[in-house]
Amino acid sequence: MNGQRLPREAGAAGIDAAFAAAVLEGLAQPQKRISSAWLYDRRGSELFEEITGLAEYYPTRTEIGILEAHAPDMARPVGRAAVLVEIGSGSSRKTPILLRALAEPHAYVPIDLAHDFFLASAHALAREFAGLRICPLVADFTQPFALPDALRSDARPRLGFFPGSTIGNLSPGGAIAFLRIMAGALGPGAYMLIGTDCTHDPTLLLPAYDDTRGVTAAFNLNLLARINRELGDKDGVNDGDSESMDGRGAGGERFALAAFRHEARYRRERDLGRIEMHLVSRRAQSVRLCGRRFDFAAGETIHTENSYKYSRDDFRALARAAGWLPEECWSDARQRFCVHLLRLSPHAPHPRTMRRAEPPATAPSSSSF
Ligand code: AVI
């Protein structure tokens, strides 16, 4: 399962305009920041896949264990001939568990931006579940979207599926906005199954986001490699050999990956905890991108990811703020991970007519991803 992604739009020079804007704007902030959505180019997606198999990264195997133990209980309330709508496709190990538990599922709608593996995993499911209609939808799930025409006016039950705790990569306000978008797309009476990491123990969290094999570090640093590849001025890499008068690297340089290191931090503010990923500059240096110069002090960071960890009750409160009713929650024996079943009232007003909810009072003020 991949993290959230944003739309791509290639500019005249072959540069992805949205990526360029996000990087240039993010690096100009007092706390430099780039959304975690941009971690997932092809190499980033491969590295994330590797992370999910690491001994330290407990969320994936814990969630799979919960799904394997409780999928029939999750599927029962939804009923026969449901339409399964998965956000951010590619969770090839989790989707079949749910599809096998659903009674005669009618259709599977994986929603993602266009990627090769998006279609490949849909084809693999088509082979296993003969007769299941597979309707891939290329859409940005952070913006309102509609189900494919053939399913929109269909009265069959609908189940949204957002596993992997990817909702934790949105800010709490962003998570509420996302749940409202899902309410608009799925319609009254729909269900949603959402995986959330509810661990608050830093001795478990920090190794999960800074593993001994360095895969998470490579995943984070790959963002700089991507920036170099897609946006860097072509005249050199800042490898520390060339120093200008002020002791920084000379202009015209891309990121030197060795001049940055990965760092995972755990932050807890009031009731809400999150892991943050940062790229720390090992020394004072300058980087030039798209004709602009960005200076880094030694120790200065680029904040690249938030991963919010919600207690069971905090997530339920967040779901309610978005108009969803928490129905049930399944967890593992150590209470590390939750899979929530939410439902929209069959008489729910359309989300656009609902009062806009504010993020829970516990949201850290800097949660802008
Ligand atoms: C995709 N997402 C839920 C992962 C997480 O745990 O926040 C991304 C990740 N970042 C570092 N390791 C995994």
Structure report:
The chain is of the alpha/beta class and 369 residues long. The protein has a domain at 49-200 and 310-344: Vaccinia Virus protein VP39 (Rossmann fold, 3-Layer(aba) Sandwich), CATH 3.40.50. Helices cover 30% and strands 22% of the residues. It has helices spanning 17-27, 42-51, 58-75, 95-101, 116-128, 149-152, 172-186, 202-208, 215-231, 312-321, and strands at 32-33, 83-87, 107-112, 133-134, 137-138, 158-162, 191-197, 260-269, 272-281, 285-289, 292-296, 301-309, 325-331, 337-343. Helix 4 (95-101) links the parallel strand 2 and strand 3 (107-112). Helix 3 runs parallel beside helix 4 (95-101). The protein is globular, with a radius of gyration of 21 Å. Bound molecules: N,N-dimethyl-L-histidine. N,N-dimethyl-L-histidine (AVI) is lined by residues 3, 51, 59, 164-166, 168-169, 209, 216, 305, 307.
What would you call the shape?
globular
What percentage of residues falls in helices of 4 or more residues?
Answer: 25-40%
- The portion of residues forming beta strands comes to 15-25%
Straight-line distance between termini? 19 Å
Please, what is the CATH homologous superfamily of the domain at 49-200 and 310-344?
Vaccinia Virus protein VP39
Cofactors and ligands present?
Answer: N,N-dimethyl-L-histidine
Instruction: Give a count of the beta strands, DSSP E runs of length 2 or more.
Output: 14
Q: Which radius of gyration do the C-alpha atoms yield?
A: 21 Å
Which fold does the CATH topology of the domain at 49-200 and 310-344 refer to?
Rossmann fold
Largest sheet: 8 strands, mixed
Mean pLDDT: 86
